[in-house]
Give the backbone structure.
Amino acid sequence: MFLPAQYEFFCPVKTNSGNRALEHLPVELDALNARKPLIITSKDLSGRGLADVMADAFKDSGLTLGIFDGTSPAPDLKLIRELTKIYRHKGYDAIIALGGGSVMDAAKALNIVVSGRPEDLERAAGEDRMMKPLKPLIWVPAGEADGYESSKYATIGPLNFSSPYLMPHLVVLDPRMTIQENIEKTAASALIVLTHAVEAYTGPAKNPMTDAYAYAAIALIMTHLMDVMKIFQNEKGCLDLANAASMAGCAFSNSPKGLVHTLGSALALACGLSPGLCMGILLPYGLEYNTQKHGFHTLELLMPLAGPDVYAGTAGSLRSRKALDILYDLQDKLVQASGGMVPRKLADMKVPKEKLTEIAQTAGGENITGWEGGLSVLEQAWQGKPATPTS
Amino acid sequence: MDLPGYYEFCCRVKIIAGHDALEKIPGALAGLQARKPMIVTDQGVSGAGLIDIVTQAIKGRVTIGSIADDVPPDSDLRVVNRLAQVYREKGCDSLMAIGGGSVMDTAKGVNIVVSEKADDLMKFSGAGALKRALNPLIVVPTTSGTGSEATLVAVVKDHEKHLKMLFTSYFLLPDVAVLDSRMTLTLPPAITAATGMDALTHAMEAYTCLAKNPLSDAHALLAIDLISTHLVKVVKNPGDRDGRLALANAATLAGAAFSNSMVGMVHTLGHSVGVVCGVPHGVCMAILLPYGLEYNRHKNGHLTAELLLPLTGVDVYTKTPRDGRMDEVIARVRQLNQDLHEAAGGRHPRCFKEVVDKNGVAMVPHEKFKDIARTVLGDGSVFYNSEELDYDDSLMVLEAAWEGRPLDTSRIKKG
Amino acid sequence: MGDFREVTPGGNPLKRVYVAIMLWFVGRAIQAAAVVDDDVKKEFENLPDGFTFSLGVMPNGPTMIVGKNRRGKVKYLGWNPKGRLIDLKMKIKNLEAAILMFTFQESTAVANARVRMIVDGEVPPACAIVRVLDIVEVYLLAKIIAKLAVKRYPVWSFGRKWIGRTRIYFRAVLGY
């Protein structure tokens, strides 16, 4: 197993997962010295009754909770100001983000403000500017989750944040909440999770502590994703995927952003596409490129990807190839299971070939590959044909 | 990989690892707004020159408030309260524990007293007594190891009242753990073997006991892989820096695993042998590990079987038929003890009758078995074990472990 | 603001009553078992006189309290912990977790592994009390349910199990 000569790792997230996990919240809040949480969610989730399920979990606790469900898919500073007023006036002392994506972004931004002063928000933007832990922040995944929620990153309006202090103190995964509703979004989120975990596990900054989170995430996705795609509303499977998302977010926060993540995000932004579906297509091609050109630890990936029998049964020199083949194969399976909603190649997503160079150049400034490498990956992913086999 | 019905996992210790990790301590202290740490250690560590290595590495960049190097081999309440007094007198604002399990436990205890501005640790012995973060605590393990750098537990003994106090709180987790290969480079072979087996036990019990979960499993698997690759090599070649760093990582990974999914009967029995006979913890673990796996075989053998690949590698795994895997794991653990015994020049015992003190006196005589079995009844780790273990069961395992023969599986009462 | 509301969720009276009844019965059954069963008797003999323990639900009960008085007799001391000096508090984290335990969906061992309880007190007496609870559960429950509640269903003589069970039920209901 690869061990780096030196590394640093930090994951402040506590994970609670399983049957009746929500009901532990009063005790967990008490452990964080909080008594009055503000729950932030969206109309979509409260419309599905999830805010009520959350409130019911507090029965018998004697606590009072606030519920705000006006978070939009694109939260802005105005929303943060509104939430700050509520938090301060009503004397809340903890934030519970019920949902994913933008709900958690808003919660993280709000937490920066209420843990300090409103000006802090602009000052905190950028890389690692926060100096102290923030007030209690809990994430309760509901619906799809892609792992950004448990990560150190947040985006609100034009501001981007990155600090381990933004990671939630606690993630509460309860099967009543993690049920997913949209098969395409489920696949897309799972592909972001897989991308982040795989890039952390195989990349140059690999270390055993990050590996533990990434390993668990990859194993959970590979064991359960197809089950969820086939039997939708599979309560247990959805919980597994949400767990994987939270773990991948932790791994992602402890490794540099990888090629597939960067290209996928740039592509999604340039063409108005789902980042998950983009990363999902790019993953095997990007990893194949990195295995050949940058010595990524793809052979070790075979273990969490396929389990000990396959790992032991594959000759050492063929393990990287096998791992990549499994990833290509996963793409085919997803295309089939989703009835074509998950695309097979970039051309299927109506990405104009002429745009690829521009996208590669945008992404190129952000990673070790340089833009030509990114372009070759994009081109292969466009056609849907990998380059020469890795041996 | 499957989720249990419910689980919790937390390891929020920052890890700084490497061959030059010590040099990063000043930065870590600054990040915690700590300016004047008190170093807590013991005579063994300072005698081996390790404190000097640390102070050299941080020279000029950190003001050390005080160095306390008289922590006894067993964490002691009076020492904790006294060191807290020294901390206050010297105006310290943080703690740096450099040592093994009892040094780290002592430091955690001192941290409770000074952070809560109290004078007696006893006042905080209840669950939920700690309500907020403690003062900054950095730990530098010098064995690989107890994994205490990643656990939420501190054990402090009150030798006057013959009490063992257990403090459990997420606030006890250190802020930073510094894993530097220089800290274990001079660890003698027999201690390397024993502490390595302690870590292996943590990982294997965490993987096979009742509170297992995917995150602790992943940590455990990686730990087992590292230990099986490096332990014997390092015992034979103590100067293997990469091997030392690998084992340090493994101990922390195993610590994170068992801190979150607990341990089972190997610890229950091992603690009791340690308490009654004074045998070092790692030695008890090494001897009892195969017995724990064997005893629980009918309940969790399928989990034990999953440890074959990380424990032995691809060759043995492919040659072993599926239904033979769990027994192969147990046999391999016994073989590992044998290999370590040879590599450590006969100083790593393979069974309890081989455990002798420095005068050659046997430390685990038959007369003490009843006491040990009685002590087992007061140890909480048995509740996480897959099978029940009562007084008679303990005696049966002890007898087999004394002689070094496998358990008679027909005598195991199956629940 | 249509987006914001504040709620103070009330109680769960039916569940509370169910758990309260179960705790009451278990408390009185322990008192009975301390007379009827030799193993339970021995466990309490090893505990100091005056030792008191409680098993209850956070934050506000229901609770059951059992103690050993100065003359060594084990008594069920009621449901109200106020004013009592309790050496060992076994606190179930919330009402739902108590329901899982008392509807036998999670055995004591599983509930413990799933961190559903906080044990506040010394470990050796806690171990003794858990063993007592296991024995009492074997007496109170039919084998098919008790097997879910304990790790290893014991092999007892017909007399011990059936006569003991009758005596314990009798005593628990009548309260002596």
Summary: Chain C has a mean pLDDT of 90. The longest strand of chain C covers residues 52-57. DSSP finds seven helices and six strands in chain C. The two ends of chain C are 59 Å apart (CA to CA).
